[in-house]
Design brief:
Largest sheet: 2 strands, antiparallel
Radius of gyration: 18 Å
Helix content: 55-70%
Order of helices and strands: HHHHEEHH
Distance between the termini: 45 Å
Number of strands: 2
Strand content: 5-15%
Shape: globular
Length: about 150
């Protein structure tokens, strides 16, 4: 009997989120701090306002988030090269323990992926890329509301 696809997918997402929270805690970070670092490492430097939008935080919590990350040595504030009046937040490193903390899950997932044929991996990675875009669009829609037509 095939399990309910929705339930399997929800269990998967839940496990990924729980692992992210546990990884952050193991590196003495909050989950939002680790999430913000990931955004910065994937997208590059951005203004605190852009980071606030991407994390879903308001201005005050974003300022405190950047303060914590800067104090820990993971980001720095710098003048925006395009507009010296603006500040950008640049990633300068990540938690040293993160690779160690993430290694068991990465190794296990690597073992799982090794069991797939190249064509299956192409489908999986196509799904990941397209689903990431879909989730980003859905988050933007929830944040900003429907676009005026």
């Amino acid at each position: 009997m095939r399990p309910d696809a929705s339930e399997v997918y929800r269990r998967y997402l839940s496990a990924v989120l729980l692992h992210g929270h546990a990884s952050a805690r193991a590196c003495e970070l909050g989950a939002t701090d680790l999430y913000a670092l990931n955004i910065l490492q994937l997208s590059g430097a951005m203004t605190p306002g852009e980071l606030a939008t991407r994390t879903g935080l308001t201005t005050g919590p974003t300022t405190r988030l950047v303060d914590r990350l800067e104090q820990a040595g993971y980001v720095r504030r710098a003048a925006d090269p395009g507009d010296r009046r603006k500040v950008i937040v640049e990633p300068v490193g990540g938690p040293a323990d993160l690779d160690r903390v993430m290694a068991p899950a990465r190794e296990r997932v690597g073992e799982i992926l090794a069991g797939y044929a190249p064509e299956q991996l192409d489908v999986l990675f196509d799904y990941f890329a397209r689903a990431a875009d879909a989730y980003q669009e859905a988050a933007d829609h929830l944040r900003t509301g429907p676009a005026d037509v």
